[in-house]
Amino acid sequence: MRKTFMGVRLRRLREERGLTQVALAQLLGISPSYLNQIEQNQRPLTVQVLLKLSAALGVDVQRFSEDDEARLVADLRDVFGSGAVLAGQAESVSQAEIRELAASMPAVGRTLVALERRCRDAEERAAAFAARLGEDRGQALRTQPMPYEEVRDFFYARHNHVAELDDLAERLFDAWSLQPGETGSGLAIRLESVHGIRVVRDERAFGEGDAGTLRRFDKGERVLRLSPLLAPGQQAFQMATQLAFLEAEEAIEGLAAQAVLRSEEARRLARIGLANYFAGALVLPYRRFLDSAERLRYDIDLLGRRFGTGFETVSHRLSTLQRPGACGVPFFFVRVDRAGNISKRQSATDFHFSRVGGTCPLWNVYEAFAQPGRILTQLASMPDGRTYLWVARTVSHGRGGYGVPGKTFAVGLGCDLQHAPRLTYAKGLKLDDPGAPTPIGAGCKVCERVGCPQRAFPSAGSRLDIDENSSRFEPYGG
């Protein structure tokens, strides 16, 4: 374990608890001078001291996590890239300064990230309203983020793990005597015997205007209608989602109330997101799923057959396995369409792509569209030097019938290189070869790589060296 200097965080914790250095040193069984050296970053915060802190003050050790620091560093790189331009900042901020800010003053760093996001949201909405001026004059400019962005940030802050719902789902899985891979029949019985709700696959209930609708609950008739296009595992997930609002309503409402959300739309989306999380936890119960994942070396197809679910559902669930004391590989999960729109983004780790200006075309999640149905692997290195193993594959959601357009996405699942040996997808890859990873970035507007063959436009905040004798950037023609 490398030396970890967390002096400012420790000092802030002590001040929050109203303790002097002498009092805290006595609680930890160390000398006041030693504690002072830790707070001044002259000595590292050791594992032993961290465990004593947890025992004496009930502190979550995640508060001193280096992964949290890395997540903040990634967010701050956006702030001092694109965000610096919004603020009119001319002076660049180095990577070393960003890391120092994240390590020493994380609260300040998080405040800067929140301010930059509000500024970015305001700019985007101002541009949108300017484009619509004349059609919609009466609508006031809103500066708050879109509801789905607020909900995404809520899950991101929790490392994509909701312990309360995981624990409840696991207890109910056992209490209802459900079986992995065969949960659908048990959930249908639960709905009818306890709640008086019949489950039917009704093609007539889903017309042309219901594209994307998979579940419809008729309260008056007490009937849950499921789309006939759903596979058995998808049916189980939709039944589990309905049961979430019936059996886990109190937990969901409590979690939604704790979230800092600005609108009723965001709160409704949060409740839906939490219900979906509960459904995944019920169909893929934590301990059974984690044990199978470790035994099968995180083979997504084998896990899908074991639990009767699809590639996307298994991939999404793998990104949630962060229970303290029983953690899986910390994954980053993403789903994109052919145009590069990210419709799902969940992270148990610090990796993220920029919120500004698209993602990197060298990322293998886009190559997946050229080889539909095939699992692609990629070692990819980011500008900060960290390397990741990525697994990508297309998934399709068809509407059925000739000439009816379907939906195709690419699903990506990534983890830090240090976890790669635990995955079956590492077979044949040169994990120890520094030249093997593909250099990618967080998106052209915030990527500082020079000489990239796929760069679409210069990095935000950088000086543009325009040479009339060069064809590097061609704003017209070409």
UniProtKB/TrEMBL annotation:
<dbReference type="InterPro" id="IPR050807">
    <property type="entry name" value="TransReg_Diox_bact_type"/>
</dbReference>
<dbReference type="InterPro" id="IPR010359">
    <property type="entry name" value="IrrE_HExxH"/>
</dbReference>
<dbReference type="InterPro" id="IPR001387">
    <property type="entry name" value="Cro/C1-type_HTH"/>
</dbReference>
<dbReference type="Pfam" id="PF06114">
    <property type="entry name" value="Peptidase_M78"/>
</dbReference>
<keyword id="KW-0805">Transcription regulation</keyword>
<dbReference type="GO" id="GO:0003677">
    <property type="term" value="F:DNA binding"/>
</dbReference>
<keyword id="KW-0238">DNA-binding</keyword>
<keyword id="KW-0804">Transcription</keyword>
<dbReference type="InterPro" id="IPR010982">
    <property type="entry name" value="Lambda_DNA-bd_dom_sf"/>
</dbReference>
<dbReference type="GO" id="GO:0003700">
    <property type="term" value="F:DNA-binding transcription factor activity"/>
</dbReference>
<dbReference type="GO" id="GO:0005829">
    <property type="term" value="C:cytosol"/>
</dbReference>
<dbReference type="Pfam" id="PF09856">
    <property type="entry name" value="ScfRs"/>
</dbReference>
<comment type="similarity">
    <text>Belongs to the short-chain fatty acyl-CoA assimilation regulator (ScfR) family.</text>
</comment>
<dbReference type="InterPro" id="IPR018653">
    <property type="entry name" value="ScfR_C"/>
</dbReference>
<protein>
    <submittedName>
        <fullName>DUF2083 domain-containing protein</fullName>
    </submittedName>
</protein>
<dbReference type="Pfam" id="PF01381">
    <property type="entry name" value="HTH_3"/>
</dbReference>
<feature type="domain" description="HTH cro/C1-type">
    <location>
        <begin position="10"/>
        <end position="64"/>
    </location>
</feature>
<dbReference type="InterPro" id="IPR026281">
    <property type="entry name" value="HTH_RamB"/>
</dbReference>
